[in-house]
Amino acid sequence: RKEVEQDPGPFNVPEGATVAFNCTYSNSASQSFFWYRQDCRKEPKLLMSVYSSGNEDGRFTAQLNRASQYISLLIRDSKLSDSATYLCVVNPPNGGFKTIFGAGTRLFVKA
Amino acid sequence: DAMVIQNPRYQVTQFGKPVTLSCSQTLNHNVMYWYQQKSSQAPKLLFHYYDKDFNNEADTPDNFQSRRPNTSFCFLDIRSPGLGDAAMYLCATSPGQLTYEQYFGPGTRLTVT
To answer: Does residue B1 register a pLDDT over 70?
Structure first.
């Protein structure tokens, strides 16, 4: 089992749709969780940190489910500009500042 | 206001010819990372520094070395590039205090001929 797993997609959705991605992690003691966005041939950019209580930033909501060892990202009212790859990142225990990236989920938002 | 800068953006090298990629940061972050990313794959951590403390990933080939002469700069040396080393190389920084959020440079795309 990979340490961090994501559904690769692609997810093809129309503008205005709501879409959700999940990411599972194997180490239950993992500490910190993030979602990054990566556009084609560009660097990853931090989208959101994921807190135990869940957090929201505009149209984006991130949640952590420690019992089932997954994090989720919900995008409401999808825009064309949301088309990108969404990377899940986990900080494993006892890894210092090491982080592990999932392979990413590709999202295409269509007009 | 570029905060993490990588040079060059594109690098072509010959098979077996040593190459050095550079990264600099204006964020004064303690942690610096080097990742390798191939097409449609996750960024793969090669190594990271906390200040001058070097942390090598167990599966990083010996062909890859790194130097961090000061807080601002970090270098990736590929001693004998093979065709399989062609990839995007990403540098990232993190404050290193209470957060693991990372800030990436634009990457260097390495081609090996």
So the answer is: no
